[in-house]
Amino acid sequence: MWKFTPCLLMTLPRAVSIILTGSGSTRCSGRVEVYHNNSWGTVCDDGWDLNDAQVVCRQLNCGPVLEVPQSAHFGAGTGQIWLDNVTCSGNESSLTECQHSGFGSNRCEHGQDAAVICSGPFLFVYWLAGSGSSRCSGRVEIFHNNVWGTVSDNDWDLNDAQVVCRQLNCGSALQAPRSAYFGAGTGQVWLSGVSCSGNESSLTECQHSGWGNPYYYYYNIHYSDAGVICSGTYIKTSFVLTGSGSTRCSGRVEVYHSNSWGTVCDDGWDLNDAEVVCRQLNCGSALQTPRTAYFGAGTGQIWLNNVTCSRSESSLIGCQHSGFGSNTCEHGQDAAVICSDAIRLVGSGSTRCSGRVEIYYNNSWGTVCDDRWDLNDAEVVCRQINCGSALQAPPSAHFGAGTGQIWLDEVTCSGNESSLTTCVHNQFGSHNCDHREDAGVICSVHLGQHIQSGFSQNVVIRTVEEVICHPEYNSTTYNSDICLLKLSAPVYFTDYIQPICLASKNSTFHSGISSWVTGCGFDCK
């Protein structure tokens, strides 16, 4: 007879069976479920790793393990959670031989259901990865020759994406994002010049340039990594940012509802609403809420209007709104967001525009090592967070040492990139640094006489502590285009630096009269 105690580890009885199931599962990939005491139950992902998954793959004759997705990647199960703290060496012939905490002994929820992806009987396996990815949207990665690698976006289109979506049982292809929309991968770029008709059963059946390319590998051209956004039959509502000039973390907000994409009207649209979108897409914090179709007017449905979020909602559809399709808006009112793109400045003495650089990757924040860190790199960060130009690129944990991961090292930017992660760097997490080498930035604004070739000798440089923009700020028009900058130190008026006197609430305005102002000023009182 088994004796159960809180700390006892035991082996499973031989009568246990095992299956892989869940949304998008196959015979060799899915949520792990165990049959015990006449009912099926899941396995908690506490301590779940490649060794445990290897035993499952071998037991099911599914070849080597490729991945160990956690957090209910194939959907949450129901009923019992039979196992927790499973500990295998990887050599067991059955999961029943591994140690665990006892049947039903756990404090888990089904959001922690463990899963496996085995290589199976196939030569090639696909995975959608990257920042903001889901089971049916992400950067396309292929497992070939025992190594994961990406696909170049050269000639990448909806026909190619359609093959991937169908192969992953993710419905139809909605978009075929390019330019590392879900973030840049690392290592190999396996395929380039992919050309599918859309009817192939596997991406590897499509025409392509051959496996691997030394140019891509050695020069780290991962800013061309291809992605897919599939309809994902299990998703009732999803979101994308799109439009002219959009990026993965900035663009016109579109909602997928009732089998079609539609926009959001900008009535009442503010930073609280945008914050929910940015967080839902793993894009950091909301910087701006452009209105009046800033990224171009959409087409088709306008799904949401009068959206009112408190910032704490996990999804935009959890906010108050007028109901799907209930509005009197036009597409000239399409709402948009500009997010920080999963980058932040923090640390001792930091401001919104100066601090220790941290990026969000693989569900956690981490720092950047200062090896080769310079003004070009800092310039990209300052532009990415809408903080002007780089004044300094302080090394050696100038804003204090961070904790946890150091995500980037040997960052090398030209200064023109749109995101720090698109610069050349080592693989994520690959470094020889400690947190005493955390990199920082100090962004700035230049005040004074501006001439065609640059600023004159009368220039005054100040760091920016805060940027407060008019809620209807839109760089494509002149209306409401004003921002207030909180600077690090006072600015004294000269012949080249003068105040801008803003109208008071009692001012009289005359129809047909407009004014244009360039530069930075103060509200005269």
From TrEMBL:
Query: In the UniProt record, which is one GO cellular component term?
Result: plasma membrane
| InterPro entries associated with the record | Peptidase_S1_PA, Peptidase_S1_PA_chymotrypsin, SRCR, SRCR-like_dom_sf, Trypsin_dom
Q: Name one GO molecular function term.
A: serine-type endopeptidase activity
- Disulfide bridge map: 44-108, 57-118, 88-98, 196-206, 265-329, 278-339, 309-319, 369-433, 382-443, 413-423
Q: Any idea which UniProt keywords this protein has? A: Disulfide bond, Signal
Please, which domain of life does this record's source organism belong to? Eukaryota
Q: Does the keyword Disulfide bond apply?
A: yes
Which residues are listed as membrane-spanning?
none
One annotated GO biological process: zymogen activation
Which residue numbers delimit the SRCR domain? 18-119, 126-231, 239-340, 343-444
According to the UniProt entry, where is the signal peptide? 1-17
Please verify whether the record's keywords include Ribonucleoprotein.
Answer: no
Spell out the SMART domains in the cross-references.
Answer: SR
Q: What is the recorded name of this protein?
A: SRCR domain-containing protein
